[in-house]
Amino acid sequence: MVPASHVEFLKQPLSFWLATTGLNNISEPIKCTGIVFDPATEIFTCFVPEKFMTIGFEHLRENPVLALVVTELHSFESYQYKGNYLAWRRCTEDEVEFQRGYMEAFSDILGSFGHSKQGLYGAYFHIPVLALTFQVTHVFDQSPRSGTGEKVCA
Amino acid sequence: MTTEDKIHLEDMMPALQGVIPTIVATASADHTPNVTYISQVYFVDADHVALSYQFFNKTIRNVRENPMLTAIVTCPVHYDLYRFILRYEESQTDGEIFDAMEIQLEALATAQNKEGIFKLKAADIYEVVSIEKI
């Protein structure tokens, strides 16, 4: 379902945001501090600071559907993956180190746009961090151009 | 939250200049979330903002079905994050707000060498239901 070309793309220091929705139909955008995609199972593991998940967990108890948008910040190439929430756990030390590396690279990109690297790093990255998994069910091309939103695979 | 703690839209002006793109999440009528970047959150008055839409996409379809939208706005001065809960009211394709947003968007496009993809198609007006620092 997920195109093979996405596997390498997703290893870059992209911008990652999740979203959940409760039965009140109010959605919650949630900043991710890294992701890992397993192409064999088509399961995403998304790393999220616990402080950003309060509303998200309330939503997931009511509605297990998740959306993940990934964006390359120079080209704005962007994809949205929708799927079903599976589980959460606390991150391992190795996963926290992985996120520190991701945040360094991601903050460097933000710094190249003139933003404070430390400012945005501090805004987004908070310990403890959780690992959420979800199974992909739909993929959409979300790059900013006419006709965007086209379904890539379902 | 006490009255003194309430965050007023007028106090958010630095975050409403489009310096750091805003992330927005919406939901379709069947509760499926959608999340995307937008270029502008434009101050209209003390109770309203306008969001820029360059593409008639899933976000637009969702707010026609379900008017609630959540935006995460980042202050470019202190790098604080704010959660805006918004309720869609109407879409404007001309007029004072549209013209002002179009000029601001052109400036952002020029700064980012993205002139081709920053064409404003509508200024969507939202009531600000709440603002909360995350």
Structural notes for this entry:
Chain B: Pfam families: PNPOx_N (PF01243). The complex is a heterodimer of chains A (154) and B (134). Chain A contains four helices and eight strands; from the N terminus they run αββββαββααββ. Chain A is of the alpha+beta class and 154 residues long. Chain A has one domain (4-153): Electron Transport, Fmn-binding Protein, Chain A (Pnp Oxidase, Chain A), CATH 2.30.110. In chain A, strands 1, 2, 3, 4, 5, 6, 7 and 8 form an eight-stranded antiparallel β-sheet that branches. In chain A, β5 (65-71) and β6 (78-90) form a beta hairpin. In chain A, α3 (93-112) runs antiparallel to α4. The mean pLDDT of chain A is 92. By secondary structure, chain B is of the alpha+beta class. Chain B has one domain: Roll (Pnp Oxidase, Chain A), CATH 2.30.110.10. Chain B contains two helices and seven strands.
Q: What brief labels describe this structure?
A:
heterodimer, A: 154 residues, alpha+beta, Pnp Oxidase, Chain A, 8-stranded antiparallel beta sheet, 8 strands, 28% helix, B: 134 residues, 7-stranded antiparallel beta sheet
In short:
Chain A has 154 residues and is of the alpha+beta class. Chain A is built from four helices and eight strands. In chain A, 28% of the residues lie in helices and 38% in strands.
